[in-house]
Amino acid sequence: MSKTVPIGNASGIIPVVGLGTWTVFGQQGNSDEVERATLAAIDAGYRHIDCAWNYGTQPGVGKALEAKIKEGVIKREDMFLTTKLWDTHHNPCLVIEELRDSLRQLKTDYVDLFLIHWPTALKDQDMSGETICPLDENGKGIPADHKLEDVWKMDTKP
Fold first, then answer.
1. PANTHER family this protein is in (predicted)?
2. Considering only CA atoms, which of 69, 63, 137 is closest in space to residue 104?
3. In a 3-state reduction of DSSP, which class is residue 141?
């Protein structure tokens, strides 16, 4: 079992070492590579997996988790899953949509930690992932006017 620390103001623990699934220099690993890395990490004793919607790695992580649970190597509650809200989904009506999309990709019904990736909102985008960072004609990110303190209001209305 990996070393853990208690989570302040909550019940639970977080493993101090985890597998980060961000890939270097904007190059995304394909789903099979991410799945193999996650399988190896779980076999090596990792119990914390960090991913994010915009990394494009959640499907590979989800396949690995599903496989290791089916094999009986882990139970879902043995794992600590972190994912992050992307900048184009700071609109409170998009937050729950992204969370649901992440849960679907990760093949689980909950994550242990859902963070705001960056405190800067970018122009609202859909969940297609076709545009991760909307840019203006000068190549600069197009900001959105969503207050950071409003993000977690998670408007669930259609």
1. ALDO/KETO REDUCTASE
2. 63
3. strand
* Residues with active-site annotation: 55
Q: Is residue 66 within 8 Å of 108, Cβ to Cβ?
A: no
Tell me the domain boundaries of the chain: 4-153
Fold of the domain built from segment(s) 4-153: TIM Barrel (3.20.20)
Confidence class for position 118, pLDDT limits 50, 70, 90: very high
pLDDT, tens only, 39-59: 999 999 999 999 999 988 999
Q: What is the pTM of this model?
A: 0.89
Write b or e for each residue in 19-40: b if 16 or more Cβ atoms lie within 10 A of its Cβ, otherwise e: bebebeeeebbebeebbebbbe
Q: What is the mean pLDDT of residues 93-122?
A: 95
